[in-house]
Amino acid sequence: MRRVRRFRLAGTAGAALLLGLMSSLASAREAIVSDAAPAAIGPYSQAILAGDMLHVSGQIAIDPATDSVVGDIEAQTERVLLQIRSIVEAAGMTLGHVVATTVYLKDLDDFPRMNAVYARHFQDPEPARSTVEVSRLPRDALIEISAVAVR
User: Fold this and answer.
1) Longest dimension (CA), the chain
2) Cα(68)–Cα(59) distance, rounded to whole angstroms?
3) Which of 32, 59, 93, 125 has its CA 20 to 30 A from that of 46?
């Protein structure tokens, strides 16, 4: 069994240390871009590297040849996860560094089919994950996935 150690930062010295750490992370932000993933379709970055944490923006399955979303839930999930992998690799990491994902599904009935594709991309221990059904996604995609990776 793994033991978890918890540390408490006491008083104003602890608060100052935490604020200093947060400030240095905020100032060390770097946009990460992969040519193997579609360019952002709005005022956001594909991903931001802050210290050792990579925050990957939600990815939808945009076919670069047609600039459109095509395919069923399995095809879209596969494309999205390949895009996330390319962005994570552009930051010098692998999918093994992904610690959390959020999956947005247009139809929660697609969960089992999405999950089968998703499971092929991550090794044990798989990232923490939240999955939610949404009424609509950009470009009427069936799925969007965001991720957080830690070096």
Assistant:
1) 57
2) 13
3) 125
